[in-house]
Amino acid sequence: MNADDVGGVHIKYLYHCPRQLWLYLRGVRPEHLSGAVRLGEAVHETSYARSSPVDLGAAKLDFIDGQHWVHEVKSSTRPTPADQAQGRHYCYRLEQIGIDAKGAILHYPKTRRTHRYPYTPEAAGQAQADIAEVIGVAAAPTSPARLARSACRGCSFTDYCWTE
Q1: Which of 46, 141, 151, 161 is the most buried (most CB within 10 A)?
Q2: Beta bridge partners of 56
Q3: Which domain holds residue 70?
């Protein structure tokens, strides 16, 4: 895996659980069995329907506005570090192709809230560090340690981590 192969889902999984990222990179994809994933897809499909997704190869963002703000629709009720990292990653990807992204606006339709995160030089540096960390997890010969079981609540990968 190289830096160009790292997409938003990789960044999200890195922040959520490195083991989840490691399994995903090896083709373990149980998301279709998860009610939470299906809910997220439904929220995404019914929110901001007039917007067009932007395909950057490995990274696919929900939409970008005329002011160059990245918009991401989330099914959760509040921001997480993974959400912020994903928005930062998309800004970095846009910067790599010559688009001066202003930052990320995360939309939470369930609570009708938005959170704005400007894209700064520090954010760009963190985005590069995140990509390097994803590549490191991808190269690891064995899976990272699993998280505490309480952190796995609702994760579609639980059976892969906790079945003895």
Answers
A1: 161
A2: 59
A3: 3-162
With cut-offs at 50, 70 and 90, classify the pLDDT of residue 128. very high
What CATH number is given to the structural domain containing 158?
A: 3.90.320.10
For residues 26 and 138, give the distance between their C-alpha atoms in angstroms, rounded to a whole number.
9
Helix (H) or strand (E) holding 72: strand 69-73
Backbone angle region of 98, left / alpha / beta, with phi > 0 → left and psi within -120 to 50 → alpha = left
Q: Which tokens sit at 57?
A: 């190869």
Minimal CA–CA distance to 9: which of 19, 21, 17?
21
CB 115 within 8 A of CB 147: no
pLDDT digits (tens, 9 = 90+) for 105-124: 999 988 999 999 999 999 99
> What is the rounded distance in angstroms from the CA atom of residue 108 to the CA atom of residue 71?
11
Reading the block at residue 118, the tokens are: 């400007």
Could you tell me the two tokens for 127? Answer: 């985005």
pLDDT per residue over 146-162, tens digit each?
888 888 877 888 877 88
